[in-house]
Amino acid sequence: MDFESLLNTEIAAGTTVGDIFTIEFMASILGNVVAAILIIVAAIFFAGWVRNRIQGISQGKRHLDDTLFTFLGNIARYVILGFALLFVLNTFGVQTTSIIAALGAVGLAVGLALQGTLSNVAAGIMIILFRPIKIGDFVEVGDESGTVKNISLNMTELASIGNVQIFVPNSDVWGNEIKNYSGYPTRRAEWTFGVGYGVNLADAERIIRDVLSGDERTHADPAPWVQVNNLNDSSVDFLVRAWVDQPKFWDYQADIKRKVKEAFDDQGINIPFPTRTVVHDNAPIRLAAQSADAAE
């Protein structure tokens, strides 16, 4: 095949090899490449700007969840980049309909192969959207408990009371009962204090109420509740309830126990503990035997 025949070879509908090397064709290709680069660069900057704007909505606003707006910002960024890619392909004359159909088939196959992972992603989206928990909350999920450190699309990261890092799959978080101890601004603390049967109950109740009212962390509304709740074998039990701000709950609960114990000691209030008296029915027989031996 000579050079002229090669140039006349048709490589597409109405397009020959020789057409590729014309100035008009090269200029059109160069123009498309420049346009594609400009579209991609503009899309990257615009997608980043939109993501930052969405993420910035929650900054400085305590009632808005940063995790939710970070997720929405990333979704918006990927959508913009996806449309930009389709626009670039159309610029070069590529039929995107077939590409989208192929991507759909590939996505279906990948989805079937990654059902467990996708269930975690779906659960992560539900957690982020409905926000049963958020970063900083102390929660109990199934057999695990700790402070929420991070919520991703696949895993929820907890820090246990002993500062052990725990990763819980989102499907386990969403599919289990969730106890969020940080969900409300206040919590009710509860104690049981036992006193002896010989103690004046009015005095014991007054001491408990004085300890509660003397602690500035105790809420006046709802008022503390102090009542005799149980008559045990060796004690009369007071059930005590009081409300406190949620962040102060653990220290408050421990401090009140100590303060009530010290106040009871100062006022001479007896705090009983279980005792057992052992009676030997054959004690008189042993004493009579010892007396007989002494007489002999």
Task: State the CATH class of the largest domain.
Answer: Mainly Alpha
Q: What's the number of domains?
A: 3
CATH structural fold name of the largest domain: Helix Hairpins
Q: What is the topology, as strand order, of the major beta sheet?
A: 6-5-4-3-7
Please identify the structural class as seen in this structure.
Answer: alpha+beta
Shape estimate: elongated
Low-confidence stretches: none
Largest sheet: 5 strands, antiparallel
How would you spell out the order of helices and strands? HEEHHHHHEEEEHEEHEEHH
Multimerization status? single chain
Task: Provide the CATH architecture of the largest domain.
Answer: Orthogonal Bundle
Number of helices: 10
Strand content: 15-25%
Distance between the termini: 145 Å
Query: Average pLDDT value?
Result: 81
Mind telling me the C-alpha Rg? 38 Å
Number of strands: 10
Explained architecture:
The structure is a single chain. By secondary structure, the protein is an alpha+beta fold. It has 3 domains: 3-113, Orthogonal Bundle (Helix Hairpins), CATH 1.10.287.1260; 133-180, SH3 type barrels (Roll), CATH 2.30.30; 186-267, Alpha-Beta Plaits, CATH 3.30.70. The chain is 52% helix and 19% strand. It has 10 helices and 10 strands. It has helices spanning 3-7, 17-20, 23-56, 66-91, 96-113, 115-130, 170-175, 201-213, 249-267, 283-295, and strands spanning 10-12, 15-16, 138-141, 144-151, 155-159, 165-169, 178-180, 186-195, 225-231, 236-245. The strands form 3 sheets. It has a 5-stranded antiparallel β-sheet. The protein has a 3-stranded antiparallel β-sheet with strand order 8-10-9, with helices on one face. Helix 3 (23-56) packs antiparallel against helix 4 (66-91) and helix 8 (201-213) crosses helix 9. The longest helix has 34 residues, at 23-56. The mean pLDDT is 81.
